[in-house]
Structures are given as structure tokens and as C-alpha cells.
Amino acid sequence: MKKRMSDDDDGAKLLQSPLALGDGLGQLDCGLGANIPVLYLPNEYRAIRLYRPTLWKQLVYGVASILSFGVLPLVSYYVPLLQAACTLTPLSSAYFATVVLVQHMESGMWETISVHHGDSIWFEFRKHRYVFDEAHGVFQRCSAAVHATPLASVRPRLQTGYSDDVAAKLNQYFGPNLLDISLEPLHKILLEKALHPFYLFQITSVFLWLYEAYYTYSCIILVMSVSSLLFEGISQVTNTRKLYDLVQKDQEVVAKVLRSHQVENIPAKNLVIGDIVVLETGSIPADMLLLEGECGVDESSLTGEAIPVNKHSAPPNATIDSTSVRNKYKASVVSAGSAVVRIDVPCKAIVLATGFHTSKGELFRSIVCPKPIQFQVERDSYRFLAALSILAVLTGLKNSYDAAIRGLGFIRIVVSWLDLITIAVPPALPLILSVGVGYAIQRLEVDGICCIDSPKVNLAGHLTCFCFDKTGTLTKDHMSFEGVDVVTANDTLSGLVSLDKSPRIVQYGAGMCHSVYQSQDGLVGSPLEKSMFEASGFSWLDDQGSQVQDPATGERFTYIKKFAFDPALQRSSVVLDKGQVFVKGSPEAMMECCLSVPKEIHQTVHEYAKAGYYCMGLATKTLDDINAIDKSNIARAQVESNLTFIGLLLFLNPIKEESPELISALQNASIDIRIITGDNALTGIHVARALAFDLKPEVVLIDMTVNEHGDEVVLHHIDTGVVEPYSADGFLRSSANADFALTGAALNRLQTSGALDVDLIEMVEATKIFARIRPDQKTWLVQTLMAQGKYVGMCGDGTNDCGALKAAHVGLALSDAEASIVAPFTSRKQNILDVLTLIREGRCALMTSYVGFKFMVMYPVAQVVMTSTLYSSLVTLSNNQFLLDDMVIVLGLSLSMLYTEPTKILTVQQPPTTLFARSILWSIGGHIIIYVLCFGLMLSIGTSESWFCSVDQAKANMTNCYTYIPPPGDGYTRVAHENAIVWLFGHWEFVLVAVAINLKDPFRQAAWPNNNYFVGYVAAMILLLLGLTLSHQPTLLEWFELAPIPTTFRLQILGIVLLNGVCTVAWEYIVTRHLDKAPAMHAMAEIRIT
């Protein structure tokens, strides 16, 4: 890069900066005549600001940080713009910038990122590189993918490759071919979590309580908070390590690459786009396009399909367009993360994309850089706590005024005010909410469901939509061979019969036309062909895959040629030593190479597909004079022509036994269900119908078709067979009485074509089955459903589901492999009914959080009322009184009430989606009013009694008053009639509210007899409070610093407590049973889960 002499040198040029050619496209000059087109992607940030460090500002900032006792850097942590203003100098140009502040698109938060200088100026955001475009003076998100490149310009490099200089420049500009997943140290993660506002408040509260010698409660809260932090931090480190290990194993691959006319073995990280690679069996380290040769590729990690796919070279006149090449030349693209299982003809390929721009990279980018999910309960809790804080501040102002008038010192007034804030904003709230979720996670563990993301438990209670992969999720993960439909003498199809009842020629075809072979570990091959081979009864006579034996006659057959399945031709074939040829493939492909086929084959195949069968045609012929043919040079066209069609091979992907129960339960609970699969659309439709999906009378498939005008999107009416070109009017007309199925190819065309009038959001809403969907499309579909306001769950079993599992509000993996690393939940039993368990536990945990929150709101309200009332008379509760209320009554009740288990019933009724739901607000508001009224009644009666002495009266040693005990240096006395009246009545509120809010609801079991801990603890607390209320025992009075009051008044306290309790329970019952009854309850359906 040319060195700039000053900030004023705005004419400086970046030597390697791409020249802009137009909107979204540039060109990188690599020297030696190598000009590489560069595609610019839309930026993923809202705004950026450029800075460079300033020494004097940093020195001033350091001094200010010390003088503010760390407050300035703490605030700067939450407000990066403040830190930038204090330590950095803003710039208008990128040439001297070393730091950039990037504003996130969704959240609006600012993130500080380093700027790198070299042959180009760049920074990395969300795993993509942004390079400074000198021509336009802006940073551009560069796609590390080949774009707008004709293959005719690439083929001269098939023998030479890039020069080392060009490769080095490309590597410097686009970065290494790595999926760089950083491993943050545990101490950094713990520090970030400790700086959360809740934890900061807890730490502040603990120090305040320690200052006031309130040691017991302080230490318990501190230990619990530290334990929670450690658990969260260690879990995050462990999960990140698993993801890192998963990526790392594929990055240690060595590739054979043409560089400067020589084939070199280089690490995969040094691959650059446009490199010419000589393919070998093993992992593929980057997305590539096959230019020469043929090979078989296992794409199961990306598509979920276990059958290896044949790949052949791309057409010589093709043009590589990074936005469409994967769809347009699917049969020639090999993707990173897949594996070459065999080389049929030596292969050379061009690297299409590297790093996080590959198919696998985009999948993992969606995992490590997910779109933020807003947790409504957490957001609402801040609003509630803000309201409580305002309450504390207002009462604190009044009490501060009263204290100042009475001559208390400034420090004592401030401490008392802070006390009110720590009372009004309960620092134990995060603990209580996390414990409730922790109980749910424990129960999930017992049921065989592992959770690695605890906040997602509550989200499971909100779910309104659930998406399922098909193969291995709703259906079993294998294909079963069901039989054949053979051609009769009348040239018609006979109908489905078992293989052993079919003609011998059909049995020979099933036993010999496949790519299955025998190994030491058993049969190796696609599940489909293994199923067919096993049904035939044939056996291998060697482990070379060259000779099989007919079990019925003992006759042996030797293969002299095999043509593997070709995705373009849609068929495979074998030639035997006696000249017999067998060919199998898609029915459409077999029609092209057979002399004749039954007239009804189109309708028959369509009916079989609708019934869920996977159909393959089988044909045969005999080569004349096989011994005279050059067996090594038999042409495929010669083998696969002029064939005699002999029947259809029929397979099924069986539905899991538990799937119907699951779908029925979800639909009766009004949870929207979608299938998102990489499998065939007709198979997906059949599975949906077989599982009794709530579908309209007709299903219309939105698909791509090829005709004389090229490929176009069509509306295929499955039941009638009518096919019409896609139009907005046709879509709207069909939507009245039809649900839709949508293929990935059609979705891609609709996304990229501006010529079609389509509302994708409306289309996704109307579509129940998504078929032939790529992993990145699965993620997009889940995010689109979420953007419509749905709470979306996803259930899948493979790597191709990882992005969707991570993006969804709740993901459940039925796998022990890659999917389990990124999914919040994993079913160890791989049982799909765990979806129901997860939803029930989620609803229970959510309602438990609401119950815990209501209790933790009423607890500080009650204590603020008590404390502020006493502060007005310069009286306070004693440490032992606080200890009993906080540690024994409140903490014990809150922990035990959270242990209630979920109901066995899944209902139409949904839990509230917000803490500001009508039932919650009315419940809290009513309880506060009831408590304040009863508290005021109690205080009014008590202070009007003849025996009552105020603090001032006791201090003046008036007759018949209790002995006044001066305050212990803080200005607030403990022993007073005000204290005894307020505390003996006030702490009953904790028990009464706990009982009321734990009435039976639709999502949790009744506390009695299912939660013995809570019931037993309530009984113990009632006995304890009865004893305290009625006791005159001197030790108790001294321990709790209570002034003596008459027995008759103690009985009055119990009477008002009873009134308070009746009103509290009655109000909660009215709110939950009548005032907030959801309309869906009138038609509630219940499914008992066994």
C-alpha cells in the first residue's frame, strides 16, 4: 500500500483495491494480467465510525477511571461510543483508522473492531471481511467466491494453475480458507457475565449488607451468584470447544493444487478462490465446481440424504455466477463439508468459495453469529424493576427528609436510602428465576433431554409453530424395499407384488443392478440399494464387488462394467459377463432409453408418489457377442439404449410409530406444524397426509419445471395433475381451498427473480411442506416464520439442520452428532415425543417464572411498605427479623414453590407472552391493594390501642411504656411497638401470597398433593408464624428485638391475617379463572400424554 504522509493526503491510492464496475461488483487487479471479479454483498451493519487512538486522551481516561473508582470504564463498557469519545480521535478516512465502531443492524448496539492494514484495509464483522473500496471511499463486504467468470477463461489454467504471486494476493485480500471459531478464555467469559446489570446489582447489594453486618444472607447470595456464573461460563466454554473441534478436524486437510505448472500439496487454509484442485477421496475443504472427471460424493452432512451423489464436469460454455451456480450446476458442484467417496474418472475442480462463504461456512456462520432473540420476560422484568426502583426512590426521598429533620447524619441517610433500593429491587430475583428453569432442566435430564442453553427453556413455553425435518425425524432414517410392479404380457402393469413372486428376470435385476458391496463390517452402500439387495437374497462371493450368486440356482454372475448413478441422466447400469444388461433409474429417465413402456406408467408413478412410494424403473437387454466387445471401452450410451422395460421398483420411508401421536397432540393444542425437508416434495406431502396434518382439501406444489421456454416456476395441483405457470393471481386463487408445498429450487427462483410478482412472506405463511430445501434455506425459512411473530421450534437429526436448530427460538436435535452441539436441546433417546415433553416443561417453567416473579414483586413491595412506615418513625427492622423474612420465609417458599412439575395435559390455552399480561398485572395490583388496605387497618387499630406507645413517648419514659433502647449508632431503634405491629402482621403476607399464586393452572400440577416440598414448607411457616404471633417468650422477644404487646391484640392480628388471606386467595382465583379466561378455552382440546 502506498504510504500516506498526512491526514490531508486524500489522493492516496490503495494498490490492491478493487476497481468498481457497477452496483455490487468490482475487479481486483492481481498483476500479471490477472483481474478477478469481486462481488460486493449488502452490508450487515447499520453504521460505522472510524477512529485512531490518541495518547493524551488515553492518559486522561486512565486518570478519570481511577478518580471515579471504576465507574467511568464500567459505563464505557455499556456505551462504546463514550469510550471512543474519551480515548480515540474520529476520522473521515480509513487510511489512518485502527479502530472501527460498528452498529449492529438488529439491536442498534455498537461493537469495537480492529482495522487491519496491508495490501488492503479491512476489518471483520460477523465472520465476513469488509475491505475499503478506495474508489467510493467506503467499506464493502466482499464475497470470497468466484463470480461472473466464464469457464472458457478458466480452462487454460487447468494445466498451469495460479502463479504463487497471484495466489498470495488473493489470500491476502479474501483471507485464509478457515472457519475461525475463537475460543475465549473462561475468565473473560466470566467477566462479561459478571458485568450484567443484575449481577452488578447483586454485588453492590452484598457489599452494602456486609457494611451493615448482615453477613449470613450476604454470603448465601454471593455463593449462589458465583456458582451460577461458574456454571454458565463453563457450559459456554465446553459447547464452544465442541463446535471448534467439529470444525477443526476438516481444516487439517491437505489439498492437491496446481500452482505455477506444478501439483503441490498445500494446507486447506491456503486455498484461494479460482484455485485448480486435483480431487482425491476424502473431505472437501472448499466449495468447488468440477471441470474434469466424474466422482461420487457423500453429501449427507449437508443434505441429510445418505445416498452418495454422482458428480460430473460442468458444461464447457458455463459461466460461474456465485448467486446461482449451486442450483444451475448442482450436478457439478462439490461442497465443503461433503466427502469424495470414489473417483470414477480423474477429477479437476475450481475452488468456488472459501471460508465462511462456502455452504458449510454459511451454516456455521449462522450458528456462531445468530440473529439476536429478544427474551420478552427479561425485557419486561427490567420495566417492572424500574417501576420498583422509582417506588424506592420516592419513599427514600420522604424518609431522607424525615431523617434529616430528626438530625441523622448524611452517611446514615444515604445507607438507608440504598437499603430501600435493595429491598425494592430484590437482588435474588435472577437466582429465583434461574432456579425455576434449573428444576425444569433437571426434569428434562431425567427424561433424556439434554439442555445447553437454559434461557431457551422458557421460550419453549411460548411455542406456536413447530418445524420438522422429515427423514430420521418424522420418518425412520432408512428406506425399505416394498416390492415391484412388473410389466405383464399385455404390456400393462400388474400392481404391487413382493419380489419373490415376480419373474426371475426382475429378481436378477434387483440382485445385481446396484453399487452395494461386501466389507468386513457388512454391506456397504446406500440404504435404498442395500434394502433391495437384501430382499433379492443374492450374496457376494468376494470382497471386490465383482461376483454375486443367485441363491435359488447357485448360478454365479460376474460384473464386467458398472456405470454409477448419474444425477444428470438419473440412472445407473451394470453389464454382466454373459452380456446381460440391467439399468435402473427414475421412471422418466427409463422412458427415454426403453423401446416401449406401459401406457399407464405416468399415472401409475404419480399415484405411487402420492402414496409415499419412491419409484425406480428397471429395464434390461442382452448385448450380442459380448466376447467381441472391448469391455474396458464399453460406451454408456451403448449400454443404456434400446432397453426392455420390465417393471417398477418400489420403496418406502416408514413413518415412526410415535409420529402420529405427536402430530395429533400438537394440532389439538393449536400449534402450527411445518415440514422442512431435503427430500422429495411428493413424499413430504404423503407423510403430511399420512400423519393427518390439518390440511385443506387440496395441496398445490410450487416447483420448477423445464419446457421449451426454459425453466419456470409452476403451480402443480397434486390431486388433479394440472400444471399452470406461476402467477400471483393463480396463487391467491388456489389459496382459498389449498395448502401449498414449496421446493427449494422454486424458492430460490422466487427470491432472486424480480420478474415474478410474489409476496414471499405470504407464501411461507401459506406453505405447510418445504421440500428439496438446502441447509441455508432451512435457516431462512425458520427466521422468516419468526419474523411473522411466531414462536418457532425446530426438530431435526442432521448437520443440514444445524443452522435452523440454532436460529429457531427452540431447537431439539434427535442426534448425538453435530446437531447436538448447536441445538439448545438434544434427545438422547432420539424420541420425537420428546417434543411434547419439552413443550410441557417449557410451559411449566414459563408459568413458574411468572409465579416466581409475582412473588418476588410482592415480597419487596411488602417489605418497602413495612420499612418505609417504620423509617418515618426512625424505627427499622432488626437483622434477625430481616434474616427470618429473607432467608427462612421468602427464600424457602420461593425455592419450594418452583419445584411444581408440569401437567400431563397439553391444552389449547397458551401461557401469557409478557409480564404485562392482564392476568399478571391484575394479580399483582389486586394483591398490593389488598395488602395495603389490611396493613393500614392493622396499623390504625394498633396505634389507637390504649397500651400503644410511640417511639417518642417511650423515649420520654412516659408511664406504661416499654423500656426504650437507644439505637446502636445508626439513628434507628429496633425495639418499638411500631416494629412489633408492622412485622408480626407484615411477614404473613409472604405466606398468603405464596399460597394464592400457586393455585392450580393449566400448565402446572396442583401443589397438593404433587409438590410436597411446598405444601410441607407452607405448613411449617404457618406454625412458625403462629408461634411468633402468639408467643410472649422473653428469649424470642429479645432475639427478634420485639416490644411486648397484649395477647388480645395478637389475636386481632391473626383475625386480620385471616381476612387478608381470604381476600388474597379469592382475588387470585377470580383473576385466573374468570377475568383472564382466554377465548380458546371455550373450545379447549386436551391430550393426555402417556
UniProtKB/TrEMBL annotation:
Coiled coil: none annotated. Residues 50-124 form the P5B-type ATPase N-terminal domain. It holds the Pfam family Cation_ATPase. The chain crosses the membrane at residues 59-79, 920-941, 980-999, 1011-1031, 1051-1071. InterPro entries: ATPase_P-typ_cyto_dom_N, ATPase_P-typ_P_site, ATPase_P-typ_TM_dom_sf, ATPase_P-typ_transduc_dom_A_sf, ATPase_P-type_domA, HAD-like_sf, HAD_sf, P-type_TPase_V. It is found in: Membrane. It is a multi-pass membrane protein. The keyword Zinc does not apply. It catalyses: ATP + H2O = ADP + phosphate + H(+). Keywords: ATP-binding, Magnesium, Membrane, Metal-binding, Nucleotide-binding, Phosphoprotein, Translocase, Transmembrane, Transmembrane helix. Residues 254-366 form the P-type ATPase A domain. One of its GO terms (molecular function) is ATPase-coupled monoatomic cation transmembrane transporter activity. It comes from the Eukaryota. Its EC number is 7.2.2.-. One of its GO terms (cellular component) is membrane. Signal peptide: none annotated. Belongs to the cation transport ATPase (P-type) (TC 3.A.3) family. Type V subfamily. This is Cation-transporting ATPase. It comes from Aphanomyces euteiches.
